[in-house]
Amino acid sequence: MFPRNVAQQRRRAFSTRSWTIAAMFFVTLLAAGLLLLPKHAPSADEPAGPPAEAFGGKQNELRLVLLIKKTLPPKSAPLEFDAAKIDAILPWSKPVAGLRARIETIYDKQILVRLENVSAGPLVVPNGHPPQVAGSYAFELYLDRNRHWQRIPLAPLKDTAESGFPNADIQLNPGESSLVWLNCEEDRLTHAMDRVANMKIIFRQSSVPNMATWSGELETPPHRANPGWNARQEQSPYPELSGQLPFPEHFPAFSHLRKQWGIFLNLDDVEAFVDQKEMSDLRYANVALLNALELYDPTAVRTEFERRMLAEEDDPVMKLLLAVTAARVGGQQAALFLLESMKETDYRRVVKTQQALHDVLGYYQSGDPPDWIIELAKAAMTDERMATGKYYQTMEKTPFAISRLSGGPGMLAGSRKEIPYLIELVERGDDSGDAVRALASMRDPRVVPVLLNRLKIVIKTARQDGDTVVPHEFHSLAQALADQHVKEATPLLLERLEIEYVPHYLELMGDPRAIPPLRELVAADGKVTRVGESLYPDRAEERMRRAQLALAMLEDGNRVARLARLLHDPSWGEHDRTQVVHRLETCGDPRAIEHLVNAVKTDPSGWVVIFGISALPAFKSKAAVDALIDCFDADFQGKEYGKGEGSPYEFLDRIARSLHDLTDESFGPDKQKWTDWWRENRDTSELK
Q: Is 574 within a domain?
């Protein structure tokens, strides 16, 4: 892959839906991968060998089945719960009419409330917030804003056909509990929750003729609104409770709707898109429930979701999602179902099954995945059967091997036991960059010499062949070595300055030996000549821009002044200026503040403005607070930083959020309130 585009990555961070794109990026890349060196079926003139078998034959399939059964025993010992510890972290409300409640967890605009029957008889309770009608029950959400509780509207629970959520009351027998899935209507709840300390839920229901139906008023104890779930790292706000809560007897059913970017999709309208993303979209629609499962007894989760998987008959993608959910916590039947699903050759089914394998592997980011999923991943990587059915990539005219859909050796990233296997792939040149990236992510001392030696070979081969297309492997190697500051790679990279990304790699490397060649490159306006021939003249300007950025960061002296000159250079485009803003943010020099403020106030690009506002909290200083309050006076009219994004309110709200990041205070986009508070507290602030 080409080097990470910092500006593009950070743009995505400003959208509440952007994490979905990152989570599903693997699937999008797979389609593009089909265009590289396609593995095609033999022509009529070529001898046709025997057709490939699933898993390379029955013997290997049997080995995988036995491995799953050995690794994942069907039964586990029951978990003993520490009720005192749990209740101290997640306290219950006082019981009212035999029912008590607490907020179990939150995610984005979704709140999960646990109701428990502590009476001697059955109680009927809702499983969501219904339409508000006379005499009906209702859940109310309140946020603590500046020590004042403010009510935030909740979305009513719609019928199953429209929302995908089951709409029915639940009978709780004595001692049973249920989880209520609440959604907020306010689009800015995520931002609001960043600025408050606590939230609470009030549950009211009037008396009804049915004696078993609960009535009364419950108020949950305050629950931390920040942090909630970390969407990008899948981290629970209560890691000390991970896997330690008893699983509720009534856990909400998953929604069958596919949710993309915060909206529901009609699958018939986006068939080609769904080919690549349906599995991930379904997961996103249920992300709050999936995250909540991290809190519960894994044995109970496994049992319940294997039951749901076996019962699911109408939605094959949902069946895969249920299998993933159970397999992640040791479900033997779920793992065997995934293995059985891998026998499919239909393109669309293969894509979804491969995504399911990635989802299971992604669960083990902090440690080695178990052997069974590693072996399934290897089976996918080496599956030489030809894909059948309708292909998303219409440019692909001939059948291709299913292994091309697996994501390659990148599936093994995080598995330290597989480092020797990945090294072998790199050393023999059987890698387009996936194995390199997987190895680099693990930072193992065995890896650097292998990557360095491979870079020498790739550079030599590319030059001898006269190749005008730089191999993807080169970029993976250069990025990996630069990220780890392996300065032995500097001379190798300097040999290939005609590649427009090399100056960026040299900047990351931080090796001063690169400064003279980069100066020469800038003096030549980015032109590179070898043996009298100008190399890639159409890329000269981009080379020069990257070299200027690299020099601004590498040279001695006032780095901020050099970056400021680039930021205000009228010849630099919007994308280039956002790159400068990022470097000003990370340079650690408080002199950058005035240049960032100037960009916020005067730059015509909404992207540069929003980046500048978001960069200021990095300085953790009183001067940064002064600067942000001053930015409220900027004219943001007509500036955009995305399709439909960039109203003046959004820029002002971003200023308020940056101020919250610095001060932990919440006054919204109101300059006067911030000014009054800062006037009283500036001298006593802990900021430097």
A: yes
